[in-house]
């Protein structure tokens, strides 16, 4: 079939070649040159398709990893789950695959900080109410005779301040729960689909948040949670509990979006997971705010260095890893998280958190007045 199609194209099928060699037409010449077993109704249709119709475009076939077959590039790292049987679907127009994640990143970040502002309002209102309830109880206790065994209620001063480790404890508990889910064999496909971020996956947006709480390796989770625990008190002192939670969650989504951009730009598709991007935001924010603070490595406490120098070294390493294509870590996510942390404590706090007052006023009006019943006026 292929030979005869070539012969007909070579000798021509148009009107200018209606008569060629020895007065024989194009069809007679090609029929004489082609083997007889190729002739027939089925083959004539093939000739017509070759001469008169365009071939349908080939559909993009699913690929299993960025290089080679069966996920060869990702077997080198023990921090990610085995993805040999996971099928990815890279878009023929990779830039378009970033549109939905971009809108999700912007929308989620706005919702995170808006929710944090409302949470802070409700928390302060509850503390003020508790304080005055305590004063009232103390006054009542002072004018009535004390009963035997009755304890005087005390208003503890820490009710006016957030409990610094509450947010960190919640994050660590969520990471531990997801780590246990990775150990369930029947959930492997679901975990890879929703708890690993990959721009070549069919699910793009929700894994940008869920993968921030996902660790496949125990060492990976332990290292990340130790760093989070070490810096959580400092970041809560700087920003407050509510703002810290908004920063952490939005940093996880933003760092994953930067990872998407890096993978699309380089064509190195593959799954990523872990809290490293969000933790890099926390670390960078603290190091930028307290650059002269002294840090040390857990196994080498005798070697200390300033927080500013540590941040510079981390950014340099992740930049080199992204340029050179190192695959053990997601260096683009690390770099995106660090840059976001530096930007937020330098400019973002003034631009975002200091401008939350209109939203808080609207929420206060809703909470104070409540929805009006009926449409008529009194």
From TrEMBL:
EC category: hydrolase
GO molecular function terms noted in the UniProt entry: serine-type endopeptidase activity
Entry-linked InterPro entries: Peptidase_S54_rhomboid_dom, Rhomboid-like_sf, Rhomboid_protease_S54
Gene name for this UniProt entry: PARL
One example of a Gene Ontology biological process annotation: regulation of proteolysis
Membrane topology recorded in Swiss-Prot or TrEMBL: Multi-pass membrane protein
Catalytic activity: Cleaves type-1 transmembrane domains using a catalytic dyad composed of serine and histidine that are contributed by different transmembrane domains
Top-rank taxon: Eukaryota
GO cellular component: a single term: mitochondrial inner membrane
Subunit and interaction comment: Interacts with PSEN1 and PSEN2. Binds OPA1.
Organism of derivation: Mandrillus leucophaeus
EC numbers on record: 3.4.21.105
Key words, A-Z: Hydrolase, Membrane, Mitochondrion, Mitochondrion inner membrane, Transit peptide, Transmembrane, Transmembrane helix
Name the record gives this protein: Presenilin-associated rhomboid-like protein, mitochondrial
Record-annotated membrane-spanning stretches: 102-121, 167-184, 204-223, 243-261, 297-316, 328-346
Main location: mitochondrion
Membership in a protein family: Belongs to the peptidase S54 family.
Pfam family name, one: Rhomboid
Gene3D superfamilies, per the entry: Rhomboid-like
Domain Peptidase S54 rhomboid positions: 208-348
């Amino acid at each position: 079939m292929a030979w005869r199609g070539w012969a007909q194209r070579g000798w021509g099928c148009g009107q200018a070649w209606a008569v060629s060699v020895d007065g024989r037409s194009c069809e007679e010449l090609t029929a004489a040159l082609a083997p007889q077993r190729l002739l027939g109704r089925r083959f004539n249709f093939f000739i017509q398709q070759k001469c008169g119709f365009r071939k349908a475009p080939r559909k993009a076939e699913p690929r299993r990893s960025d290089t080679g077959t069966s996920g060869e590039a990702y077997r080198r790292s023990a921090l990610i789950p085995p993805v040999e049987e996971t099928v990815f679907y890279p878009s023929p127009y990779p830039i378009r695959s970033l549109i939905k994640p971009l809108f999700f990143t912007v929308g989620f970040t706005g919702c995170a900080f808006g929710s944090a502002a409302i949470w802070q309002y409700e928390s302060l209102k509850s503390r003020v109410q508790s304080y005055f309830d305590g004063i009232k109880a103390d006054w009542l206790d002072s004018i009535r005779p004390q009963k035997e065994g009755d304890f005087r209620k005390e208003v503890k001063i820490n009710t006016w301040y957030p409990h610094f480790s509450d947010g960190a404890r919640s994050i660590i508990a969520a990471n531990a729960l997801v780590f246990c889910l990775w150990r369930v064999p029947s959930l492997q496909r679901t975990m890879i689909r929703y708890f690993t971020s990959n721009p070549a996956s069919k699910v793009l947006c929700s894994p940008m948040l869920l993968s921030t709480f996902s660790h496949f390796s125990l060492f990976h989770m332990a290292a990340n949670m130790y760093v989070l625990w070490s810096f959580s008190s400092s970041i809560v002192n700087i920003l407050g509990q509510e703002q810290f939670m908004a920063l952490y969650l939005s940093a996880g989504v933003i760092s994953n979006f930067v990872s998407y951009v890096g993978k699309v730009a380089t064509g190195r598709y593959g799954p990523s997971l872990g809290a490293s991007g969000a933790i890099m935001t926390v670390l960078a924010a603290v190091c930028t705010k307290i650059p002269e603070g002294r840090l040390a490595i857990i196994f080498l406490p005798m070697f200390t260095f300033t927080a500013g120098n540590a941040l510079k070294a981390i950014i340099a390493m992740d930049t080199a890893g992204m340029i050179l294509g190192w695959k053990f870590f997601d260096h683009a996510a690390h770099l995106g998280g660090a840059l976001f942390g530096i930007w937020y404590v330098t400019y973002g706090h003034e631009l975002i958190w200091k401008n939350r007052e209109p939203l808080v006023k609207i929420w206060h009006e809703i909470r104070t007045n409540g929805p009006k019943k009926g449409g008529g006026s009194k």
